Amino acid sequence: MEIAILFGVFALLLVLGVPIAFAISTATLATVVYLGLPPVVVVQQVSAGFNKISLLAIPLFIFTGELMMRGGISDRLISLASSLVGHLRGGLGQVSVLASTLFGGVSGSALADVSAIGPTIIPQMAKRGFSKDYAVDVTVSASLVALLLPPSHNLILFSAVAGGGVSIADLFAAGIVPALMLAIGIMGAAYWLARVRGYPTEPFPGFGEVLKRLVAAIPGLLMIFVIFGGIRAGIFTAVESSAIAVLYALLVCLLIYRALGWKEFWAAATHAARSSGAVLFVIGAAGAFGWLIAYLQIPGAVVESLNALTDDRNVALLLMLVSLLIMGTFLDLAPKIIIVTPIFLPVARAYGIDPMHFGVIMVLAGGLGLMMPPIGSVLFVGSAIGGITITEAMRSIWPFFFAALTVLLLVTFIPALSLTLPAIWR
Amino acid sequence: MTAKRSGLTGTFDLLANATVMIASIALVSLVLVLAWQVIGRYVLNASPGWTEPVALTLMSISALFGAAIAVRAESHFSFPTVMESSPPVIRAFLRFVSRLIGVVFGAALSWFGFFLMIDSWDTPMAGAPAPEGLTYAGLAFGGALIGIFSLERLLAGSPAKPTHEGA
Q1: What is the pLDDT of residues A44-77, one digit of tens each?
Q2: Residues of A with CB below 8 A from B79's CB?
Q3: What is the chain A residue with the closest CA to B94?
Q4: For the stretch A84-115, what's the b/e string if a residue is b when 16 or more beta carbons lie within 10 angstroms of its beta carbon?
Q5: B15 vs A294, which has greater pLDDT?
Q6: From residue A247, how far is each of A151, A282, B51, B53, B75 by CA, in Å?
Q7: Which residues contact B122 (CB under 8 A, 6 or more apart)?
Q8: Lowest mean pLDDT: which of A105-114, A241-250, A317-326, B146-155?
Q9: Contact (CB, 8 A) for A141 and A96
């Protein structure tokens, strides 16, 4: 009965449009009251949900992304990408993918990625004869690469919710190969669609110009080495690296690019505070939800049910993957990670699936939801930048969606794709 | 009535500006505290013990004050498809229910947050020369702000420009 109350109230409030954090908390409170426990325990667990050291990295990496977006780093990365791949079939479409991959490698956020690259690349593509739906879709799907590259705050979130034992540095390493596969898959889809529609290419600017743009982009690109190298070399922890990343971004944007004034800095800080507040509020609320899930021994019951259904690891993986994709159609990525991890991770462990591998699957599967309605926040932002409706944007999303889905299936059933790099670098 | 209304809106605007300022200052302070932790370890050769509990307190203040601003902008994660495709009367009712839950939830968070803060005020924070009760300040004050801004939405309706957060 208590499980029915917990999930019934949550599902009802979710469907009615109540913010997820409120829906989770109300469902938890209703169940706690039904169980005869004191309601203050819910607030204590919300507080405990916030009190995790690894969560400190999330607002700071969001802040870093905001600074880089406003401080001239994204413009230089687009310029470099344009000189490297603009001459390929699909021209600016390919530029969008490479620029997103480079920016994703320094911001770790799909929304920051599409917000930074989109306003520059989408209008330029429209001006050069690309249809707006193509311009929006290639940019939106390319931004998903950021979800898997260091310093992805979604991977940090997974590590925090997993409750220790899953190192952030290892997760960062595990995401690199799948991220590069995703970038290549989306470039392939962009190439194919550009060929079908006869889109133009950009002239190759010459190696001298490529070198010039590379030099201009290097200070921004070094961010990934500062973060990843610093953690791997043991100079600082993942959490400390997020503060160093903010200071490094400030240094580059303020002193080298001279593109960041007080107004932009303050806008970055306020926007980061509001965005991270929305994410962390769900995390806190889900702290109580996760505690109740453990208290009611729900993961054990799910493992038993799945065991009764199959003892094959791949079938269990497929069932979980389908569930994750379905949930991705109505839950945004961060809430999904927070709500699903406490239930599915013990199941994955019971079937011998590595938590790092499972984390990469979870984030990539959730990423697919971000580019599809009704939840697709990244698609919404991309469409708004392109000035088209979601229905128009949906016209050419499918090749990109299937490219990403193919990568997801490969990553799911070939664990070595995500587990080899962490093993080498450990 | 209009003057009274605009006076109320002005008060909410002032409160929102103060809230966003506190959330942002807490965020910037968080950067400085963690950077000091690294400087302490490598430059001063002494890792300060106070940085972690202070950083956690700053994060909870920044997060809950930021969450209150997102409540005002109605930009929290949600699944609005059913609500948005409902007839106007049902939509208005669902919005009312959602905002009312926000008021009650914010009030409860604040009430119990203050209770926990006062209850643990005499206990010293582990690692920092501050009362343990401070760790609940974000919940107590942020919860109150969540309730107040939900109440504003209940009285004044939807904000001018909805935005989306996350990812």
Answers
A1: 888 887 777 878 888 888 888 888 878 888 788 8
A2: 14-15, 17, 20, 330-331, 374-375
A3: A16
A4: bbbebbbbbbbbbbbbbbbbbbbbbbbbbbbb
A5: B15
A6: 15, 27, 17, 21, 28
A7: B131, B133
A8: A105-114
A9: no
C-alpha of A412 from chain center: 17
pLDDT in tens, A259-313: 888 898 999 999 888 888 887 888 788 778 878 887 887 777 777 787 787 888 8
The answer to whether residue B154 neighbours chain A at the CB level (below 8 Å) is: no
Task: Determine which of A20, A52, A139, A274 to mutate to test the interface with B (most B C-beta atoms within 10 Å).
Answer: A274
Tell which wins on pLDDT, A397 or A370: A397
Q: Which residues pair with B131 in a beta bridge?
A: B124
**Which of A20, A281, A283, A42 lies closest to B111 in space, CA to CA?**
A42
B116 — contact with chain A (CB < 8 Å)?
A: yes
Tell if the CB–CB gap between A276 and B63 is shorter than 8 Å. Answer: yes
Using a CB-CB cut-off of 8 Å, the residues of chain A touching B135 are: 47, 51
Q: Does B76 touch chain A (CB under 8 A)?
A: yes
User: Is residue B39 within 8 angstroms of chain A, CB to CB?
Assistant: no
B165 contact residues in A (CB cutoff 8 A):
274-275, 277-279
Q: Which chain A residues contact residue B164 at CB under 8 A?
A: 377, 380-381
The two three-digit tokens of residue A386, written as one number = 């392109």
Q: What integer pLDDT is reported at residue B6 of this predicted model?
A: 67
Residues of B in contact with A55 (CB under 8 A): 59
Please name the member of B31, B73, B94 whose beta carbon is closest to the beta carbon of A17.
Answer: B94
Mutate to test the interface with B, among A14, A246, A281 (most CBs of B within 10 A): A281
Asked if A269 and B28 come within 8 Å (Cβ–Cβ), the reply is yes
Q: How many CB atoms lie within 10 A of CB A129?
A: 12
Among the partner-chain residues B23, B78, B167, the one whose CB lies closest to the CB of A378 is B167
pLDDT band at A187 (very low <50, low <70, confident <90, very high): very high
pLDDT band at A211 (very low <50, low <70, confident <90, very high): very high
Q: Does A332 touch chain B (CB under 8 A)?
A: yes
Q: What pTM value is reported for the model?
A: 0.80
Cα torsion B41, A175, A152, A146 to 10°: value is 140
- Is residue B120 within 8 angstroms of chain A, CB to CB? no
Shortest CA gap B94–chain A (Å): 6
Do A132 and A392 meet the contact criterion of CB atoms below 8 Å apart? yes
Identify whether the C-beta of residue A169 lies closer than 8 Å to the C-beta of residue A217: no
Interface ipTM: 0.87
| Gap between the Cα atoms of A56 and A243, Å rounded | 9
